[in-house]
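Lab manual, section 2.4: Encoding a predicted structure.

Procedure: take the sequence of the chain (45 residues), apply the prediction step described in section 2.3, and record the output as structure tokens. A sample record is shown.
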Amino acid sequence: MDILFLLIPLSVILVLLILGGLWWAINTGQFEDVEEEGERIFNED
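Recorded output:
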């Protein structure tokens, strides 16, 4: 039972870190043009 006092706050912190990373990636434009990177390797000269 004592381990729950450690695991619950750690899981909340982990979820907040994941959401913060997702928020950062969206706001810095990481997902703006996902198609171009897939087609870029076919168009290299």
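Check your result against the sample. The two ends are 62 Å apart (CA to CA).
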